[in-house]
Amino acid sequence: MKRTLSGLIVGALFTTSLHASFQSGADKIINQVDPAMNIGVEVVDLTSGTTIYRRNQARSFIPASNMKLFSDAAALMVLGPDYRFKNQLSAGIGTLQNGVLNGTLYLHLPGDPSFSRERLASLLASLKTWHIDRIVGNVVIDSSHANVNPYPPGWMVQDLVYSYGAPLAPVVIDANRMIVTVNPGDKPGAPAIVEVEGDKGGIVINNQVTTKDKASRCGVDFSMNKQNQLTVRGCVGVGQWAVQQKMAIQNPLIYAQGLIKQQLNQLNIVHEGNVTLGRAPAGSLLLATDTSKPIAQLMADTLKPSDNLYADSLFLHAAAKLQGTPVNWADAQSIIKKFLQQQTGIPLQNAILTDGSGLSRHDLLTPNQTVSLLKFLYERFPLSYEYIAALPISGRDGTLQRRFKRPDQQDLVRAKTGTMTGVISLSGYLYTANAHTLAFAIYINRLPGTKPSVSGRYRYVVDALCTYFLQQKPSNNSWAKVFSKHPRIKYQQNPTQTELQRSRQAKWRRLETVVKQALRGQAVTILYRGNELVLKDNQSDANRVMNALQGLRKKYPFAVALASKNKPGLTGKPLVMWIDEAPLTAQRVWTIREATS
């Protein structure tokens, strides 16, 4: 017994000494930049159960996107990993006769952040299975966000134009954002070509961009008003790359109304009525159902790219499920705080959870609250795998794809980033040199009067601290040792939708470059449209374009459709699919699309 006790005492002294070393090493990293830095840090060794570093761990900080750790944890606890949003179409019972819907069509939108125009089109196309070819009555959108303020308190006005500041209400389609593409005209002085991806959905474009001989001193400015009137100003060079901007749709209802009208028209369904917001009566006839990906996958689509709209949607939806009715931002905060406190035992009285995304500058969390949540999720939460797998992985994906890329760092940090003006944060899990699992939270908020030479190094401090702890070998000789039941979480083999989209975009950007090079000097206008290239050909001989494309196809697999008034004599070239079409001008239109494998 004496030997055991003496062993514990020696182990405790050794551990205390080791932790003092950790403290001094981490303090040195911070102090060499600014000893007065407004930084809060807590690091807990989950393998041994000991805290190995603390600094201002009980101080409240604006967390930025680290708020998503809390909102997504609540969503996973409330909804479960297999929960799916259901978007539905319904009609009043007994109103469908002889292909005519004499009454109201209801579109039920429960707040699915991933609901897209393609899925809307699929829902509306199901009307054909009911042999509906005419609607005499309104289309009513029954949205769970109908009475929610589009923006939570504390969002900055300058953020609202960009895609990351997209409004959440009253409806969500295409995450209420869009990509605007500006292609140069075919010659100097010509107007540039401004396009919105997919269906315009009521977007009105005011194009004030001209084409210049050179791109120097050129730039493009984008703005949109509350009527979804998009104004694009500036200039582009005649041979430069297409300019793209991700923008927030300022009026989601107008966008939804426009999409529904366009898609019904494309289906040859006559609509005699309006598209409005409203509530569907109980007992309406269900016509079709669309389901989202499960919450576990939506969490990855939230946390890895740090998607604000997704996080806020999950935040409100989890609160609504707990409440039993749709909620506003204030109600959601009190509901989620109370729920998390009950489930985790973490004191959150001084925490402020204004939104789920962290874009609000009213949000406040402490490093201790954050690490306590991470510790609970790792040690006691049965869905810890689903949660940790959704986090960005160092050097691998999401917002950590370009950080911690060295071989001794890659895959060893699973954490949520956070960045706003004057705010930087990083919280999650990392694995030390001797395979201990650490839960950590690092928050930095700039104080008034801080020199740019200091605030400009905040990112360095965060990364240097993580690198320092990755290299450490915490002791196993702690009397508080708790052996982890969790093996290291393997990173996801399947790429996320964001990664797939980036890969596709990079491929089409490369193709845009080589096509422009191959057709330089030809009378051809080349338009980049994200997932295709469109060539408007004014030349007399179609073979000039065809021969150039044929040479590129050896390296870049693609297919071509040619729309023209007369079938061209392109013998021995099965690459081309001819579309019998009489365009308004004598132009031939070549569409380059992805080829099937």
Report the portion of residues in β strands.
Answer: 15-25%
Name the quaternary structure. Answer: single chain
Domain count, please report it. Answer: 3
CATH class of the largest domain: Alpha Beta
Widest sheet: strand ordering: 2-1-20-19-18
CATH architecture of the largest domain: 3-Layer(aba) Sandwich
Note poorly predicted spans.
479-493
Indicate the CATH topology of the largest domain. Beta-lactamase
By secondary-structure content and strand pairing, the structural class works out as: alpha+beta
Largest sheet: 5 strands, antiparallel
* Number of beta strands: 25
Mean pLDDT, rounded to whole units? 88
- Distance, first to last CA: 71 Å
Protein name: D-alanyl-D-alanine carboxypeptidase/D-alanyl-D-alanine-endopeptidase
Family: Belongs to the peptidase S13 family.
InterPro entries: Beta-lactam/transpept-like, Peptidase_S13
EC number: 3.4.16.4
Characterize the structure shown.
This protein has helices at residues 2-31, 68-79, 117-125, 252-266, 295-303, 308-323, 329-344, 367-379, 384-389, 452-455, 458-470, 497-518, 542-552; strands at 39-45, 50-55, 86-91, 96-97, 100-102, 105-109, 134-136, 139-143, 177-183, 193-196, 204-212, 220-224, 229-237, 243-248, 270-272, 275-277, 285-291, 413-420, 423-431, 437-445, 524-528, 533-537, 558-564, 576-580, 588-594. Mean pLDDT is 88; it is low at 479-493. It is α+β, with helices and mostly antiparallel strands and 597 residues long. The N and C termini lie far apart (71 Å). It has 3 domains: 2-81 and 295-493, DD-peptidase/beta-lactamase superfamily (Beta-lactamase); 85-180 and 242-292, D-tyrosyl-trna(Tyr) Deacylase, Chain: A (3-Layer(bba) Sandwich); 498-594, 60s Ribosomal Protein L30, Chain: A. The chain is globular, with a radius of gyration of 28 Å.
